[in-house]
């Protein structure tokens, strides 16, 4: 297996460069990559140190490192280009066609999305996180009028992480409520949820996956048994079917995918970008 | 102000394409962008529908839309390129130079980072979120031996959202503990924290910002007064100085920036990528 050093170089957190880097590198299963992050590159001096680290890796490996860069500053980009590495300039490559298309020059400053820099977006986000925490797991139900969405599901179907992701990433007020055995007797939605039926969204999970997750937490318990998981998921399906609650099957999906699909399905507008 | 329609087109969540799109568009302050997400484009049919939506916007606007695409499938990319929009092909543009450099062909499948698809990474992440919740706000302290990091700070300095972000994004076990007036009398760290001094990390906030945040929550209270905020932040600074606790000033920083800087400063290794 061949080996390559990979550097993510950014004037900020490096999260964007890393995401696109990971996605591209996953295309090359036969190469072993060693990944390094060089973030908050703000000065020419930072830049020269980054280049020195890249060149040291090149010397040690005997091969050219691969660099994913989101540097914005033209001088910094130029310095990086002289490193001798394969520099994939995510920002610079598209800036010129974009300027040409829009007919205006760019500000060439480090750019952030609103979610990251706008103080009012910051507040929305923090408030949303606290809302998710306060309204987690059915603990409180008297603030549901403020909720953008109320996730329902059986225990360990991923309600809490999804609520938190919706809050952190999109600034949405997401409550969640577990449906438990007591709710299953009469196939009715719990009283607390009845007035908010139009805010409900169901997380559905396959019993085979649910039992694995529950076993990790309470091995050998009735709660974790396949039989119990089958019964709960079957009854849950009947309830959401009866009330026409929109749903997503979370079994094979990441939190990102669940959350973005919920947005797409519900048409909910994110509060931050 | 000129106006442009912008489309984020992705075979997955669109999060990466959106991040780079937001960052590039923020360079053009004089253009009003209307943003659309076309995500989970998985089939040629999905692709044709996306192209139709882009072309409809072009017709309505009378200008070419801008498209940020992370489509991987070559046929889909080709279809998108024929839309007539300015297509910034984030994936395709760098694939060829990368293949040439590595001397291997890519698999051309939709790529995901480990964090997103690997089931064991999924579990780490969920466990980390539950750890952050269980160990939030000093509520429990007897699991600190399992913590990767324990964030300390005055009330409303951003400990909870930062802990959750560290959990969701990096799979880290992050506890947090508020330092309150009772802890300030003798300038000592609370007993519960003493055995874990090497795991502590302090979130420092300017009193002027803190009072604004607290006013939003409890307007007119002593808790929110500038005087109180000044006293708490001053005493907090004295305590972390005395115990040499590493720190970051969070005042002007996003949660992403705080979290990634904590990683860089502590050298903590993320559990998921």
From TrEMBL, chains A, B:
Segments passing through the bilayer: none
Sites where the protein binds ADP: 153-160
Keywords linked to the UniProt accession: Kinase, Nucleotide-binding, Serine/threonine-protein kinase, Transferase
EC number assigned by the record: 2.7.11.33, 2.7.4.28
One Pfam family named in its UniProt record: Kinase-PPPase
Enzyme class: transferase
Entries under PANTHER family matching the protein: PYRUVATE, PHOSPHATE DIKINASE REGULATORY PROTEIN 1, CHLOROPLASTIC (PTHR31756)
Family that this chain belongs to: Belongs to the pyruvate, phosphate/water dikinase regulatory protein family. PSRP subfamily.
Descriptive protein name: Putative phosphoenolpyruvate synthase regulatory protein
Organism the protein comes from: Isoalcanivorax pacificus W11-5
């Amino acid at each position: 297996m061949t080996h390559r050093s990979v550097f993510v170089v950014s004037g900020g957190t490096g999260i964007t460069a890393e995401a696109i880097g990971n996605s591209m590198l996953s295309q090359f299963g036969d190469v072993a990559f060693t990944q390094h992050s060089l973030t908050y590159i703000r000065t020419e001096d930072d830049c020269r140190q980054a280049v020195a680290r890249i060149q040291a890796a090149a010397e040690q490996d005997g091969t050219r490192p691969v660099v994913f860069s989101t540097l914005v500053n033209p001088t910094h980009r130029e310095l990086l280009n002289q490193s001798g590495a394969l520099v994939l300039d995510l920002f610079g490559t598209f800036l010129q066609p974009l300027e040409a298309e829009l007919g205006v020059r760019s500000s060439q400053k480090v750019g952030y999305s609103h979610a990251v820099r706008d103080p009012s977006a910051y507040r929305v986000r923090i408030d949303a996180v606290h809302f998710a925490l306060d309204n987690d797991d059915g603990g409180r139900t008297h603030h549901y009028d403020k909720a953008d969405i109320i996730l329902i599901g059986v225990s360990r179907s991923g309600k809490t992480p999804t609520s938190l992701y919706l809050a952190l990433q999109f600034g949405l007020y997401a409550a969640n409520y577990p449906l438990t055995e007591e709710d299953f007797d009469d196939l009715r939605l719990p009283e607390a949820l009845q007035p908010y039926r139009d805010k409900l969204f169901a997380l559905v999970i396959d019993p085979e996956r649910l039992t694995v997750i529950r076993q990790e937490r309470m091995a050998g318990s009735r709660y974790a048994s396949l039989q119990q998981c089958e019964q709960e998921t079957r009854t849950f399906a009947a309830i959401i079917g009866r009330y026409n609650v929109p749903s997503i099957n979370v079994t094979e999906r990441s939190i990102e995918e669940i959350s973005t699909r919920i947005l797409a399905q519900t048409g909910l507008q994110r509060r931050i970008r």
